[in-house]
Design brief:
The chain is an alpha/beta fold. The chain is built from 14 helices and eleven strands. It is 49% helix and 18% strand.
Length: 328
């Protein structure tokens, strides 16, 4: 009996050591600050994974771009040096043209259309398969709501955008969109935007109107247009090495937890944009301009035609239009 007891104790000790050996902390890179809606969702995701895996899978976040730009840490993810990262669809478009389709202006006209498309299995398959060829895999997405336009000069109608220098990202889709609007697209680091508007380097920017209040841009941009032209999507992507290291059961939990925060981001993203824009109007004197977007929608139709001529983009654009029940 004594020998049996010792054997059981030894077996339990070995099992405990084995469990501890499987526990690991994984690097999660992002260029956002540990504050705000997206950061809260990421922290909720990490907490849920740690609890449900009983500590076998934990994440260490590297906030504020401490591991470099999105392009920098995406390369580290591809090499397996970083395990997970938050990469937006504009950055991914430069690597995989298919992602440019979900950046097209007015391809999503309502939050409901966006959610329906992003959760569709066919859409996921097209995006996920194209990514895996580049040695990373999308884990899920965060919705931050519609992007609009804000300016330091008075703008009351579409025609007033003509000739204005509007800050945007280095994405061909976003550059072409602003040219279609009659504006002059001006790529600029977001960290330089406040000073850029102060000094007249740019006349405004396209982005979420929440930035007027959350990022204090309403101090220099006093006109906000609810153009709602695009929805930049933040994707959490993992290295192939991460998928190999995490057990099948724990990987299932990781996906389930990110699916949960994706759904939550859909529920709160647009509401936050509207609430923060209203705060900018009430507390910072920003004028909210309700603009007729029909001319803007009409101006970008050639972008759809061009996308359908691209073999890499046509399948996804056709799938989206089928889901939305619309024609080119």
């Amino acid at each position: 009996m004594k020998l049996l007891r010792h054997a059981l104790v030894a077996a339990c000790a070995l099992a405990a050591l084995d469990a501890n050996a499987q526990a690991a902390t994984y690097k999660f890179a992002t260029n956002i600050a540990n504050a705000g809606t997206s950061a809260d969702l990421l922290n909720d995701f990490a907490k849920g994974v740690e609890e449900r895996t009983e500590g076998r899978v934990t994440f260490k976040f590297f906030w504020n771009g401490v591991l470099g730009s999105q392009e920098d840490y995406l390369q580290q993810i591809q090499r397996g040096v970083v395990d997970v990262g938050l990469i937006n669809s504009a950055t991914l478009e430069n690597l995989i043209p298919a992602f440019g389709v979900i950046n097209l202006p007015y391809v999503f006209r309502t939050p409901e259309e966006y959610g329906q498309v992003m959760n569709d299995p066919k859409v996921k398959e097209i995006l996920f398969n194209s990514a895996q060829e580049h040695r990373f895999v999308p884990l899920g997405y965060l919705s931050t709501g519609f992007r609009s336009i804000y300016t330091s000069r008075p703008v009351e109608k579409v025609e007033d955008l003509a000739g204005l220098k509007i800050r945007t990202m280095s994405s061909e889709t976003y550059l072409e969109m602003l040219r279609s609007f009659g504006a002059v697209p001006t790529p600029l680091a977001r960290s330089e935007l406040f000073a850029g508007m102060q000094q007249g380097v740019v006349d405004g920017a396209e982005g979420g109107l929440a930035g007027l209040y959350d990022g204090k841009l309403g101090e220099v941009a006093k006109w906000a247009l609810d153009t709602n032209q695009t929805r930049l999507t933040d994707f959490a992507v993992t290295s192939l090495k991460f998928r190999d290291r995490v057990s099948e059961d724990d990987l299932k939990i990781v996906y389930e937890e990110f699916e949960h925060v994706s759904a939550e981001s859909l529920a709160i993203g647009d509401a936050h944009q509207q609430e923060a824009a209203q705060k900018a109007a009430d507390e910072m004197g920003v004028t909210l301009v309700h603009i007729d977007t029909e001319p803007l929608m009409k101006s970008v139709e050639p972008m759809y035609e061009k996308a359908r001529e691209d073999e890499a983009k046509r399948p996804l654009l056709d799938a989206i239009f089928e889901i939305e029940g619309r024609e080119l």
